[in-house]
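Entry, Tuesday afternoon. Goal for today is a structural model of the target with adenosine-5'-triphosphate bound, before we commit to ordering more compound. Inputs were pasted exactly as handed over by J.K., no edits. I checked the ligand SMILES twice against the vendor sheet because last time a stereocentre got dropped in transcription.
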Amino acid sequence: MSNTFQVDLRGIVDLLSHHLYASPRVYIRELLQNSVDAITAAGTDHAGRVEIITGEMLRISDNGIGLTEAQVHELLATIGRSSKRDELGFARHEFLGQFGIGLLSCFMVADEIRVHTRHEGAPAVLWTGYSDGRYEVAPGAEREPGTTVTLLPRRGAEHFLTGTTVTELATLYGSLLPVEVTVDGRPVTGRGLPWEFPPQARATYAEKTLGFRPFDVIELNVPAAGLTGAAFVLPTPVNPASRGGHRVYLKRMLLAESVEGLLPEWAFFARCVVDSSELRPTASRESLYDDGQLAETRDAIADQIRGWLVRLSATDPRRLGEFLRIHHLGVKALALHDDEMLRLVEQWYPMRTNMGEITLAEFRERFGVLRYAATDDEFRQLAAVAAAQDVGLINGGYVYDADLIERLAGTDPEIRAERLDPTDLTTRFLPLDAETELSLRPFLSVAQRRLDRLGCEVVVRAFDPVTVPALYLISRAAAFRDEFTASRDQADDLWGGVLDALSQTVPTDRPQLVLNHRNPLVRRVAALADTELAGLAVESLYGQALMLGHHPIRPSDAALLTTSLLGLLDRAVPGEAS
Ligand SMILES: Nc1ncnc2c1ncn2[C@@H]1O[C@H](COP(=O)(O)OP(=O)(O)OP(=O)(O)O)[C@@H](O)[C@H]1O
């Protein structure tokens, strides 16, 4: 024995309103969609018209194809049955609807739905559906071919059917539709496609609907997806991680104002407004169906945005510079895996160097090798000294910069990159002649004794600039050891033992205080016969070098600084010691 499924309409409507549609407001979209589809079905030489009248009840009339009585029974009363699919069940291309559930959404705001309809050459029919699942079919009053749907508001949902709300919703969803739509006599369509507006009007449109005046507008055209539209470039930086959605229309009907997945992540600086005749909606019609076609469309749009950037570099570099200043993070993120973008960054993005802000291309021309410091701290330590020796140095400490430099060198054998370690610079420090070296021995041993307990080695070299008396150089290995010692000091006995055992394996090159023999003050200090005063001076130079390089001041450093400062003051201020 075979039976037929029974459907509990209340249950289905509840499912739709709570789990499928984001808001009951979509009922207007579903009604508009049915009217437009009926007009499409009536044929192309047919000037379509959709009229919405609000009041006690809501009425929407179209001059579309209408339904015969047999179709009314078949289509309106069967959930999931649609006239918009072909024999194989595929959505027919020319229609907006496809699922056969749209009309049900009206039960979210109405208790009763009346469909008064007539198909050319057939008598008019009146179908009445109730939210409890009953429906009636009766002969309808004489009328022109077409359909009028009337909604009787459900208690508590009246506000969804007022003139103001309906005008707002019809404008939101339907303003780009290719048929004339009016609400209470006022047209909501007919203003054309915003991305075809002249530039000024386009900017005003963006300001009103997207909330910003665009930096530029990129026209989009992807024939394979029947897609046209525009990408509006944001005029201010945005967090690359914030997902900005796009305004997507499908066959001129708004899908949603914040659709994700239309652009690749790197293009976070653009907001699109597009219409597509091929991309598919999910059943809720609130997002795009994520399939191969969406992926291909995304790639095609990405190409067009990339093309805009490349074009800008060729025709208007100044403007490209402006763009990069605003959105450098996104462009750099993109350059990490896109060669064209990498070239763009190399040619046009000014990086911070010790010779000012210059592009990597210029830097290479001047200095050959892309020499960079990997962190901001290392850069600060080295920048002035390197500059005085005419060594160009890039600050690779900004997000992505060091990675980009490395990648550039990895993709082009012509390009060399070199990470500069603070201790590498000592090779640029000239040793002193043997005689001077010898004469400085006693001073050096005094100085070394004062700094021994801080784990610092003192050397004297000649380097530029003469104005810098001393530099504190810390190699990567030493930096690691410093952190290691700090955690050893804080650890309890058990962990202390473990860390001690480990420390055997930690390399032992020590940080260095490099005194500059070209600096007059250093020469005078080195020549002092008073070893106590020389010691105090070395300690002060040590403190000053720490601060110059923005090194952390440990408690032992702070204690040393205090005693040396007080010691020097004591020497400097005249009067008898008490
Ligand atoms: N205004 C109308 N004029 C003519 N036929 C209509 C009209 N409204 C609805 N219909 C008929 O009723 C059927 C069911 O409509 P319904 O809105 O439930 O689903 P659909 O439009 O086919 O698909 P979807 O769920 O994607 O909207 C339609 O396929 C269509 O044949």
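The domain at 427-475+511-572 is CATH 1.20.120.790 (Four Helix Bundle (Hemerythrin (Met), subunit A)).
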